[in-house]
Each structure stands twice: as structure tokens, then as C-alpha cells.
Amino acid sequence: MSYDSLLIKDSDRVLIVTEKRKRYLVQVREGKKFHCSEGFIDTTQLIGRPFGCRVTSNTGSRWVVLNPTLADRVMFFPRTTQVVYPKDIGYIIVSSGVGPGCRVLEGGTGTGVLTSILAYLVRPYGKVYSYDVKDEYLEAASLRLRQLGLDKYVELKHGDIGVDVAETDLDAAIIDVPEPWKAVERCYSCLKPSGVWVSVSPTVEQVVQTFEALDEVGFSDTSCVELLLRNIRVKRGMTRPEFIMRGHTTFIVSARKTVKD
Amino acid sequence: MSYDSLLIKDSDRVLIVTEKRKRYLVQVREGKKFHCSEGFIDTTQLIGRPFGCRVTSNTGSRWVVLNPTLADRVMFFPRTTQVVYPKDIGYIIVSSGVGPGCRVLEGGTGTGVLTSILAYLVRPYGKVYSYDVKDEYLEAASLRLRQLGLDKYVELKHGDIGVDVAETDLDAAIIDVPEPWKAVERCYSCLKPSGVWVSVSPTVEQVVQTFEALDEVGFSDTSCVELLLRNIRVKRGMTRPEFIMRGHTTFIVSARKTVKD
Amino acid sequence: MSYDSLLIKDSDRVLIVTEKRKRYLVQVREGKKFHCSEGFIDTTQLIGRPFGCRVTSNTGSRWVVLNPTLADRVMFFPRTTQVVYPKDIGYIIVSSGVGPGCRVLEGGTGTGVLTSILAYLVRPYGKVYSYDVKDEYLEAASLRLRQLGLDKYVELKHGDIGVDVAETDLDAAIIDVPEPWKAVERCYSCLKPSGVWVSVSPTVEQVVQTFEALDEVGFSDTSCVELLLRNIRVKRGMTRPEFIMRGHTTFIVSARKTVKD
Amino acid sequence: MSYDSLLIKDSDRVLIVTEKRKRYLVQVREGKKFHCSEGFIDTTQLIGRPFGCRVTSNTGSRWVVLNPTLADRVMFFPRTTQVVYPKDIGYIIVSSGVGPGCRVLEGGTGTGVLTSILAYLVRPYGKVYSYDVKDEYLEAASLRLRQLGLDKYVELKHGDIGVDVAETDLDAAIIDVPEPWKAVERCYSCLKPSGVWVSVSPTVEQVVQTFEALDEVGFSDTSCVELLLRNIRVKRGMTRPEFIMRGHTTFIVSARKTVKD
After folding, report:
1. Which of A238, A240, A243 is closest, CB to CB, to C246?
2. Chain B residue with minimum CA distance to A94
């Protein structure tokens, strides 16, 4: 990455963090103003300045202008479906072993949050095969992946993850559909021996049903975890956990394909 | 990855999961027996069989033999220092944005758990620069990285993270040392604008001191989180969170480099 | 308690729980209507009906009309100060050993939430000595205690808990002031040997400073805990922890008075 | 309580907290030594000294000798069944509204931990009616209640909580049996209108089944919570949550009796 890429250009997306710690993903454009509850700036002034610079709004509020990480960007995808949170994405990545060169099945595509992160990590030689039954989700995800420059690492496919998957010898299957147990048998066929199943479901009953299907079809080492994230307010003399907290996002089920030989 | 790589070979390391869900990382060798509290097997019998196969110990206990993921393998590194847990590693990865091609600073190397995961993820064109003040840690980490085939993605360097780091324009700095605040100034110089700082510390006072140093030197968007992992026992009619739980591992501090222009 | 007391009378306070699980403390009065976002009822119709009865609002929403427990009632006290939550109150009661006949010091009185619960529990022969430096808090608490019929179990006193407390041989001191460490020495004198200190503070630094004062003055067996409460949505096929959760309320410090003999 | 009661007498039970924070409930006796991993003391020396005194073991370890609270004492009851933890007891007390004068149903008696706390709180005019199907539990609980001087506030009864309960107009029913749903109908009849049901169950499926029974029989305002207790190690410069934590104890279900009139 050259130094030039660290200067903000016209049409770049930047992450603005305000004095009150509000976060906005903003596309810079000649002549475009960005407004929020803490005032406005003219984004023209950002062109040619480095990522990481500081600006002051018309009301005197001090903001920083950052180069968004991928995690920053996906958090601004339109929330047409329930999204997977970064804390859970991190755990999925580590437990599935997804990394450069992996071939990964994803179902469903949904908003494309997880698709984008997986695509980013399997570069440059791996591939994500992402299925969804809704065309509008696939089209929206396609657009976002192109914006992120990640489209060539993903095959978006219209189909039912429990029926239509054609790939084989995959390293991992990451499943985020309402009835993951219906995908277990098909995913078993697609995975290579010892391959990893990871599914996310918000309710206990979904998890129980998924466990039973995994056991029946021939997965093993099945486990279920839940992650609680606490934000800590750090300020000398006033340090404490934040009062506001997300009480639950999802349960994460993981398992490994076993084989009869 | 060819199909052959899915057959277990002499000297391969396998992950054995027993009927009672105990986990062992075992090196397969002609003529070698593996013993645990649930009996023994002769590992010779595993050679030529596929990963994911099932075996029965001499006492009738049923085990599965898996191809260990990287996360599986690092959990068996000798614990000479406090290790970073998978739940925290996942969050570090997502919040730092580390992926293929990234150039990452790590300090200190410690047991090499995080070094290995970072090396795995920056492949094939990125690099991890990992510093430690103890030669014995660097030597042990070097050996383990070679065993994992990850050594070419890491430069292990003897030195103090707060003083000796020479690299510049790095994407992220991942800091796990007792006094992270002493590394803040040096890391600021090493990171590219908008680059990411992530540090882990078990105590509140370390976090407060780190926050103050980050603020003073010119980092912004600083935050601190803590992750609680609950294991869920899933069994129809008997589903509940597990009674045993880790109460605390570490706080995770992240921040972004800002610049004056 | 006679059966008559189970029929709702004019001017009784009732707890109304709506179909959407909103909770309201309502005083019944001849001719008075109660309105909320789910419609209204005329409270006249409640007079003479039993607690626990069901009513239907003008919009067809189905509500239940309960006899509020003390915990229900205190949750509706005006929140002029940060209140102590039921989960924390329960832990304070059990760890302090407060029960019938106990003589308890409280500081400060604040909104009187904890004062009311303590008064209820020390009946009929015990006493709560509750101090506050603000007259308006004492007056408001006095009114509420009379409404609850608990005033004769409490002596409300204007004064600084760290200076003015005159009682001796108390069983427990329950401290909810911004600087509990300033009350430690005075409370030591007021407690009987082996008596219990319990204080609540939201920040880590308050807890550290309190521990140091307790140790210096002659308390022992000092501990600090934090309670996280998760609400569970229970519905067959859809059971999961609630998405909304309080991330932090307070730390609870407890200790025991030791003596030199 | 007179001052004399604050001097330790022969045959008193004391709570010894050692330098390493181990806790022991010890009966003082002329000529009896108490041994633990941190050395021994002769308990004779404690007679006539005040509760809260400090002693030194033969190995130089410094201990404190406290007057055990009721919560301290019940934690040393033999654990023949799964006990209810103080954090959960506290929440049960507050949500059930149990206090002086209340008439409370308990089922089952089990080890008598909760029975003892309830008995302590309903004094001097209330009563706990505690049922169990096992005679040996009732006998052991009877002995412990006498030791604590609480036996006159409890009627221990042999019987099935779902069938045999004869009392009526009770304020609350506290249920800790494996199949609480079988007790719902009987408890409905025993409670006065608007009376409180509280049950504890470790698994999700028990909770779901209990909710359905409560709804069917005529309870309302039903809720389910879970409490997580974190111990905090407080030491300036080294403050953090403890590494060891109980991951789960029980879910707490509460509900209110509604009536048709």
C-alpha cells in the first residue's frame, strides 16, 4: 500500500468519529456537506488530507476522520436482516479456522456482513460460496462486495443451503439461516473430512434441534457458546462498566465432520 | 489442498477428542501408543486413515481423530506466559482489521499463540514483526512457527517494544506486555495514519494508564471491552449454561492513530 | 391478614401490568381514570374487587391488577438519586444478615428505596437509623415511609454518615454515599464486634479506596462482587435471553469488623 | 442482644477466615484443636474472647474469628442436594416479598438452606410450611433448624408439594423441585389472590414447562431471570475480576396469582 493511499481522495468513504463518540460512514465528495447532531463540515476540505486527520465542525465540535476498517464498514450495511456482531464474527473466524486460501460455504448471504469478512480473509486464493434464497439479498450483497473490492473472492448463488449446494471438499460451512438443522445433511457432503460447521441461532430451541441433526448425520466435537461483550468506560477516578449493554445476540454452534472408513 | 492431505501420515499431529470430551494433541508415529485416563490406542493404526475417523480405545471408549485447526494447535502450546484466549483473539482480529497482506507489529511474542494466528492470517504477502525481550521465548516461538509452516511470515526480533521497533507504515500494533503505556509512543511512530492499536491487559489500572498514554500521544477513538464466554450444555430436556466458566481473561483496548496535518 | 384486605379499597395503590407487560403503580379513586399507551380504565370499577383481578381497557387490552409487593412499590419512587436495584438489594440483605430485630445503620437515605426494604425486614422490634445530609431527601423519604406504614421502624436523621452517627452496637451498616471511605472510621465505632459493613459504589476507583480504608481501620474478610441480571424470554420454540440488558449497576463491598482484645 | 452474646462461649460456632481467605465453620470446645492447611489453633483460647478477634495459628498464619451470619452458616450445610446460592436467595426474597409475618410455602425442603433463611425472615409471627417427600431430608433440616433456633417458625411436613399441601391464603410459594410444573395447580389453590410464585430450575426446558403450566392455571406477570455473580479482586494497581467464576446456578421464575371474580 503506497503512501498516496493514505491521503483522502474524492469519493473515498471515511469513518467520522465525533466528540460525543458517534460514528458515521461518510462518502467524501467535492461540494458535499456532512451534517449530524453535532454540526456539519464540508467534505471537500478532506480531499488531499491524510486519514487520521482531525476536523472541527461549524459548532466547534472536534471530530476525527479515519480510514474505516472492514469491520467499521460492514457495521454500516443496511440492516435488512439480523446482522452478526463483531464479537461473534471474531469467534466464528477463530473456531472455523477460516484464513487465506480457504474455500468456505456460507448460507444465507443476508446483508453480506459475514460474507465480506470471510471474503477479506480468504484472499487471494480462497473462495466464499454464499447462498441465499432471496434475489434481493444477493443483489444488494453483490453491490457491497464490489464497493469493497471483494467481489472476486465470492460466488453469490441463488439457492437453498439445504438442497442446492454443489461444491465439495470445503474447509468450513458458516450457517446463518432460521432452520440450520435442514442444512446439516447437505453441508456434511460438501465439507472435507474433519471440516468445520459453524452456525449461529438466537434461540435455545434452534440450538437443540441443530445439535440433534449434527449428531445424527455424523458430526462430532459439537459445542455451543455464547459471548457477552461489556464496554468499559475508562476514565481515571470514574472507571466502570457501561450501563448500556446488549443482553444477547446469538448462540454459536460448532462441530467437526467425522467419517466412516 | 489435495485429497491425500486428508489421510493421516506418519508424524502428523492429530487432535483426539475422547468420549468424555477431553482434548489431546497427539503426534502420530509408527509404533507409538497414546495413553490417557480413558484408555490407550496404538497411533500406528491411524496412518493412512482419513482425518475425521473414529477409533475405540482398549477400554471401549469411542474417540474421534481430527485435523487440528490452528486454534486447536495453539491451545496446546506450553503455557509459559499467560496466553490470549480464542474469544479474545477473535475480537482482536476483527477490531484490528488484520488480514491477508497486512504488516503487523506484535509485542511481546510470549508463547507465540497470537503470533501464529496473526502469521496465518497475513499470508501470503503480509508480515508479522514480533518483538520480545526474552531470548527463550523467541527461540520457542521460532520452533513452533516452523512446525506450523508459518515462520516465513514472521520476523522474530529481540528487543523492547517501547524502544527498539524500527518498522514504519504498519497497519496495526497488537500489544501484550505488562506495561503497554510504555509502548504507546514508539507504536505511534510505527503505525501508518489511521492505523490500529490493540492491547490486552488483565487489570483495570493497566487499562487506565494505557488510555491516558494513548490520548496524550495522539491516538483517538479509544475503547475498552471485555468478553465473557459461556459454554452451553445442549441436550434436549437438560439444556443449560455450563456450571464452570472462566470469570475473566483480559480487557481489550483499541485505538486509532490520528495525525496533525 | 384478613380476607377483606384482599379486596381493593378506595385510595389503595395497585400494580397494573398491561398486555404488553408495561407496569404502572396506580392509586384507585372513585371517579378517577387511568390512562396509558394501551388505553384507559375507570379505577372506580376496581373498588371491591379482589387483588389479582383482570380488567380490559377501552381498547380491548387485557391487564392484571396486583397487590404491589414492597419491591414493586419502591421501584416507582421518584428517581432523584441513583437507586439500588432489586438484584443488588437482595444480595445486600443476605450478606448483611439483616432481618427481624436487627439494628441497622443506613447512609445516605437518598430516595428511600433501600430504607424501605430494610425497615420492612427489621420489623417489629428492630430499627433502621438512616442518615442524609440533604433535608429534602429526608422529607421525601419520610412521606414515603408513612405511606408504606414503615415509618415507626426508621429514625431519619440529618447528618454526615462519616461524622454524626451516634448509635452503637449496631448489627450492620449499609452505605450508599459517593465517598464511602470517609464513613469507614465512624461506622467501625458504631458496629458491634463482628458486625457487617456493606457499601455500594459504581466505579472501580471508589471500591479500591474503600478497601484500603476498611483494611486500615480494622475490618476484615473484605470482598467485592458485581451481579449481572439477565432476563430470559420464555416461549416454547423461541426461548432466548432478552436483547436488552442493564450492563452495570454497582459494585457491592462487604466486610466484617474485627477487634483487638 | 446483650454484650455478653458478643463473647465467644463454649460450644459456640464461629466462622474462621484464614490468611488465604479459606472459610471454616468451627464449633468451639474446651480442649478441641482446629486444623486446616494453614496450621492449627486450640479453640479453648477463644472462649471468653469477643467475636471479631484475631488469632495466629501455630505456623504464624493470621486468622479472624467471626460470628457467622445466617448466610455464612447455611453455606456449610452438608450438600446432599443442589443448594440455592446467596445471590439467588437474595433475589428470591426481594421478588417474593417475604418478610416478618409472612406465611410461606416451601417445596422441597432439601438441605434446608432456603428454609432457614425464610424462617429467619418471617419471625416472629410468620410461618414457613416446608414440604419434602424424603424423610431423611426433613430430619436433617429439623436438626439444623433447632441448632439455629429457628425450628418454631417452620412446619416441616412429609408430602408431595403438588398434591398434599393443605394450607391456604399463603403469601408466597417458593418451589425448588425437579418438576415445578406439577406443583403449579396445588400452589394456585394455596396462595391468596395476587400471591407470589417463585421457582428455581437449572435447565431451560424446566423453565419453559413451568411457564406453560403457570399460564394455564391462572398465574400472570410471569418472568424468568438469571443472575451472574462476579467476584472482583481489589488491590491497588492489580484490580480485576477474579479468574474463577460460577458459570450458572439456576434460572428463577416468578409469577403472580390472578383471580376470576
Report:
1. A243
2. B90
CATH number at residue D175: 3.40.50.150
Same domain? C126 vs C45: no
Let me know whether A80 and A32 are in one domain.
no
Helices (H) and strands (E) in chain A, counts: 6, 15
C-alpha B100/C-alpha B171 separation (Å) is: 11
Closest partner residue to D240 (CB to CB) among B236, B238, B248 is B248
A159 vs B: CB within 8 A: no
Give the whole-angstrom CA distance, residue A205 versus residue A212: 11
b/e sequence D171-200, b meaning 16+ C-beta within 10 Å: bbbbbbbeebbbbbebbbebbbbbbbbbbb
Residue that terminates a domain, selected from C34, C50, C68: C68
What domain range is D142 assigned to?
72-257
Q: Does residue D61 sit in the same domain as residue D161?
A: no
Task: Write phi, then psi, for D34 (nearest 5 degrees).
Answer: -115, 125
Cα separations in angstroms, C118 against C90, D68, D243: 11, 20, 33
> Are D45 and D96 part of one and the same domain?
no
Determine contact: D204 vs chain B, CB below 8 A. yes
Instruction: State the total domains in chain C.
Output: 2
Distance CA B24, CA B66 (A): 10
Chains that touch C (3 or more CB pairs under 8 A): A, D
Confidence of residue D2 (pLDDT cuts 50, 70, 90): very low
* C53 has a chain D CB within 8 A of its CB: yes
Whether residue D246 sits in one domain with residue D129 = yes
A37 and A144 share one domain = no
Q: Are residues C120 and C39 in the same domain?
A: no
pLDDT in tens, chain A (261 residues): 334 568 999 999 999 999 999 999 999 999 999 999 999 999 999 999 999 999 999 999 999 999 999 999 999 998 878 889 999 999 999 999 999 999 999 999 999 999 999 999 999 999 999 999 999 999 999 999 999 999 999 999 999 999 999 999 999 999 999 999 999 999 999 999 999 999 999 999 999 999 999 999 999 999 999 999 999 999 999 999 999 999 999 999 999 999 987
Say which of B51, B204, B207 has its CB closest to residue A194.
B51
DSSP string, C79-95: -SSPPPPHHHHHHHHHH
Residues 86-105 of B with CB under 8 A from D: none
pLDDT digits (tens, 9 = 90+) for A178-233: 999 999 999 999 999 999 999 999 999 999 999 999 999 999 999 999 999 999 99
A95 and A58 inside one domain: no
- CB-CB neighbors (< 8 A) of B202 in chain D: 240
Query: What is the average pLDDT across B89-113?
Result: 97
Write out pLDDT tens, residues A141-155: 999 999 999 999 999
- Give yes or no for a contact between A258 and A251, defined as CB atoms under 8 angstroms apart: no
Helix, strand and coil percent figures for chain C, each rounded to 5: 30, 35, 35
Distance from CA of C194 to the nearest CA of D (A): 4
Alpha helix ranges (H) inside chain C: 70-74, 86-96, 113-122, 135-147, 184-190, 204-217
Asked if the C-beta of C240 comes within 8 angstroms of chain D's C-beta atoms, the answer is no
Nearest to D230 among C93, C95, C226 (CB): C226
Q: Using the 3D structure, point to which of A45, A68, A91 is the last residue of a domain.
A: A68
How far is Cα D23 from Cα D94, in angstroms, rounded to an integer?
Answer: 27
Average pLDDT over residues C33-39: 97
The domain that contains C49 carries what CATH number?
A: 3.10.330.20
